[in-house]
Model the fold of this input.
Amino acid sequence: VVRAGVTRDPIDSAELLSAVGGDHDGAVILFLGTVRDHNDGRNVRGVHYEAYEQMAEEVLAHIAGEAASELRGGSVAVVHRVGELAIGEVSVGVAVSSPHRAEAYQASRYVIEEIKKRLPVWKQERYLDGDQRWLSGHDPHPQADTARRGEGEAA
Amino acid sequence: MLVRTLFFAAYRDLLGVSQLDVDVAEGSTVSQLVAELRGRGGGFQSLPPRPAVAVNRTYSLHDARLAAGDEVAFIPPVAGG
Done:
């Protein structure tokens, strides 16, 4: 891992890419999550991202560390943005380098999927018609994968 | 003993508050804290009975015991990326 963090500033993908990679690496992958202009059939004009910032930084570091430990060399850099984002802006960037491409693709995918599952970040879509709503995402409850789940989960 | 509760995103909008110090009995568990808050009525009653919770920035089980000064964050379903 070379970097994991949350930022209020626009994500510089070139800079993120330059943070990974070295003489032993034969592959470098960049994944960018961007704000799209539609969701669930509605026209989106922007997205507000909020984070439990201190915890999010720690969780991002854990996720990146888990991904990097599978790389056998190489490195991982990940940054998530918070604040008001316009259509097309980058909300999350993941750069991975490794000696071979298969591990790099795998690590890149792992980081973004784990972000979706457990990073304490929330997304409020703002629609063209003036409405807005918090998206219902993934419940990161530690009991979600065990038999103890089931009582009164419907909120 | 006092614990500090944090509310984010949809929960904050529901309650109109982002941070609240709550007085609970010594040795209280997360689920007892949740029950105490939901018992306050109003928006609190609309919190889910078993919300995801992080204690001192680590996701926690509901039977975990709390200590004075713990930071207990109520975590709505996450939607990063």
Observations:
- The interface with chain B takes residues 33, 49-52, 54-56, 58, 80, 91-92, 112, 115-124, 134-143, 151-155 of chain A (CB under 8 Å).
- Residues 144-155 of chain A have pLDDT under 50 and may be disordered.
- DSSP finds three helices and nine strands in chain A.
